[in-house]
């Protein structure tokens, strides 16, 4: 069965385990990179959530994994708010899908 997994700081992940997500605590970029690679290798996950701040330097890895049809890596804001990385990703997907940017910028 495909699973939903979450990689991030333990204090942010623990409450989301109550929703049925399988959590993978990671406090550093290196831990996050290692956990993401490990999850991708097993093929058990259909969806992996990572907090934006932890994904900031993993754009290439995430982009590669999102090319695979069986796995989606999605970004979430953390307790300090958005960094814009998730919105950037959504804009890119929309531009690719319909050829125009639909979100306004000020």
From TrEMBL:
Taxonomy, superkingdom: Bacteria
Family matches, as InterPro entries: ATPase_V1-cplx_f_g_su, ATPase_V1_fsu_sf
Keywords assigned by UniProt, alphabetized: Ion transport, Transport
Pfam family, one: ATP-synt_F
Any GO molecular function: proton-transporting ATPase activity, rotational mechanism
UniProt similarity note: Belongs to the V-ATPase F subunit family.
UniProt-recorded name of the protein: V-type ATP synthase subunit F
